[in-house]
Every structure is written in structure tokens, then in C-alpha cells.
Design brief:
The protein is an alpha+beta fold and about 170 residues long. The protein contains 6 helices and 4 strands. The chain has a 4-stranded mixed β-sheet with strand order 1-4-2-3.
């Protein structure tokens, strides 16, 4: 039910974002503001009291989850660092509140090591994230894992910084 509301909200928001992305910033925009039309062209968003509707709040929360969805790991490690506790708590809370929502946890590695070893390490990373989220109350059937090993680098470079960006797990809704 909540997913339907979310999808309806996204169906409405997507065309609006597309229009906003295609708009230009010319002097005619400034003259509209001087005439009292405001930055939104006279269209108010949200409810009458200025607060966001529950659907809008859900959409914004979902978009934030999609932006902040990566856990990085140390070299040759599948240990989740403490700095990612809040991120995983937020994702876990969302999944507990929305039991019909599922997430894919992708495990990635840098290019060092054999392809076989990297696939196994990526899987251990994805499983570590899934296990952590289950300890926070997320149902196992909401979580799927996949390991890409070194096959889908975030940064194709060969420096230590590039390697660090590639050692990750990504939550994909």
C-alpha cells in the first residue's frame, strides 16, 4: 500500500523534475519573482500549512537513501567500520517500516587479487552488510546479495585512492 503511494508520488514528481531540469535561468525568471509569482511560478508544494505531505516525505526519504547507499571497506577486509552504523541504521529503519521493499546488496573489490578471490571477498562484504542489517531487525527475505568482485569499479584508476573507492558494498533499491 505504501509502495503504491510512493510510486504514485514518483510518477508525479519525475515529470516535474524533468521540466525543472530543462528550464533555463534567464532574466525573465527574475521578472516573474518581482511580479509576486515566486520561484515556483505561483505553485505551492506540500500541504496548506507548509508542511510536506506524507507521500512527499516518503519520496524524499527514499531519494536520500538512494544517494547515501555505499559502505566502504579496508584492504582485504569485510569488516564494517563504525562510521557506517548510522547509514545502515537509516536503511534498516526504512526497510523495517516498509516490509514489502527489497534491497540488493552488491559486493565490490579493487582489482588486486585473482578474480576468484575477489568474487569471494565481494560476497563476504555483501553478506556482512546483510547480517548487520538483520541484527537491526530487517527480514532476510528483504535482502539479496550479489558479488561483482573487481568487474564494476567505481573508479577505473590504479591509485590507492581508486582502489579505496572500489572496495565497497552498495545498497540498490
Amino acid at each position: 500500500m505504501q509502495l503504491n503511494k510512493l510510486l504514485k508520488g514518483l510518477a508525479i514528481a519525475l515529470p516535474l523534475f524533468t521540466l525543472a531540469a530543462c528550464s533555463s535561468t534567464s532574466d525573465s525568471d527574475a521578472s516573474g519573482a518581482e511580479n509576486g509569482a515566486g520561484a515556483n511560478g505561483g505553485v505551492m508544494t506540500g500541504s496548506a500549512d507548509g508542511m510536506l505531505s506524507p507521500e512527499e516525505q516518503m519520496r524524499q526519504k527514499f531519494e536520500a537513501l538512494q544517494r547515501d547507499n555505499t559502505i566502504y571497506f579496508g584492504y582485504d577486509s569485510n569488516e564494517i567500520q563504525g562510521q557506517y552504523a548510522d547509514l545502515l541504521d537509516t536503511h534498516s529503519s526504512y526497510l523495517r517500516e516498509n516490509p514489502s521493499v527489497k534491497v540488493l546488496i552488491e559486493g565490490h573489490t579493487d582489482e588486486r587479487g585473482t578474480p576468484e578471490y575477489n568474487i569471494a571477498l565481494g560476497e563476504r562484504r555483501a553478506k556482512a552488510v546483510a547480517k548487520y542489517m538483520q541484527t537491526l531487525g530487517v527480514q532476510a527475505d528483504q535482502l539479496s546479495i550479489v558479488s561483482y568482485g573487481e568487474e564494476k569499479p567505481q573508479d577505473p584508476g590504479h591509485s590507492e585512492d581508486a582502489f579505496a573507492k572500489n572496495r565497497r558494498a552498495v545498497l540498490v533499491y
